[in-house]
Specification:
With about 280 residues, the protein is of the alpha+beta class. Helices cover about 25% and strands about 35% of the residues. The protein has helices at about 1-30, 30-45, 145-150, 150-155, 160-165, 165-170, 200-210, and strands at about 50-60, 65-70, 95-100, 105-115, 120-130, 135-140, 175, 185, 190-195, 220-225, 230-240, 245-255. Strands 1, 2, 3, 4, 5, 6, 7, 8, 9, 10, 11 and 12 form a 12-stranded antiparallel β-sheet that branches. It is globular and about 65 Å long.
Length: about 280
């Protein structure tokens, strides 16, 4: 009797373990076909966002750069963006920063600026940096953040559409999923996958757009989507360390969140900006 009870208990435990394992797979695994459905949707969702903060890092032999762009606005306690009666974001602010070969090169701020007398105007503040890292060439233009976002200077260099431009062009069919550790992971609201890019894509991209793909000379890349939106991409290349020893080197990284740090706009008549 005890023997039968033990056999039944063992079977029950094995069944529960099998169910748990199966459930775990269904929660954590992700198929290429599912990714094909999510991939364009994630970029569509990202590009519909009005507020975002991105950080791009490039670390190649020819270039070492770091850029950030923060399109910010205040929200209420429920994280709902505050808007004017006409539906426009009521207090949008923009902060851009660039660094090249470990030296600061450019900064801009745009938003409502309050003077020492309390008068409020919208300005775009810009400056460069000299070789010693000192801010120079200060200039300001009376401009709203909405106008700045629509300008060619912003759209062609800092907009999320531009930053995600090649990734939108890339398709899942251009990816190869047979590299090491290339599992498609699905954990809660996050999807993460690793892949290499087909040589045909690299060639076609250069012919079509007249510039090198960000995947050129890469070994593989890892993309992460969070809440059905783009979150990050990291691109790796193989680096020779000497002899036959190699290591994976991170040569490109783009990270995006949809609510960045607070942006502070200077007074347009402050000592720094009054004569700009």
């Amino acid at each position: 009797m005890k023997h039968k009870f033990f056999i039944k208990s063992l079977c029950l435990i094995c069944t529960l373990m099998l169910i748990t394992a199966t459930a775990g797979c269904s929660l954590n695994s992700y198929s290429v076909d599912e990714l094909k459905a999510l991939y364009p949707k994630a970029f569509e969702n990202s590009l519909s966002e009005e507020l975002y903060y991105w950080k791009e890092t490039v670390n190649t032999t020819e270039q070492n750069s770091w850029k950030t762009c923060n399109v910010f606005a205040e929200t209420d306690k429920n994280y709902t963006v505050l808007r004017d009666k006409d539906g426009n974001i009521s207090n949008m602010k923009i902060d851009v920063f660039e660094e090249y070969n470990k030296k600061s090169t450019y900064k801009s701020l745009c938003g409502k600026s309050v003077s020492s007398s309390g008068e409020e105007k919208s300005f775009l503040f810009e400056n460069e940096y000299d070789n010693n890292g000192n801010a120079v060439h200060f200039r300001k233009s009376e401009m709203t953040p909405q106008s700045y976002i629509k300008s060619e200077a912003f759209k062609n260099k800092y907009s999320l559409h531009t930053m995600l431009g090649e990734l939108k062009h890339l398709s899942v069919d251009d990816m190869i999923f047979d590299i090491d550790n290339s599992l498609l992971e699905h954990k809660g609201k996050v999807v993460k996958f690793s892949f290499s890019v087909k040589d045909e894509y690299i060639k076609t991209y250069k012919e079509k757009f007249g510039q090198a793909s960000i995947f050129e000379n890469s070994k593989y890349a890892t993309i992460e989507f969070a809440y059905d939106r783009f979150a990050s991409i990291i691109i790796y290349a193989e680096e020779k360390l000497g002899g036959s020893i190699t290591a994976d080197k991170e040569i490109y990284k783009l990270e995006v969140v949809y609510f960045g740090p607070v942006v502070n706009i200077p007074a347009y008549d402050s000592d720094t900006w009054k004569d700009a």
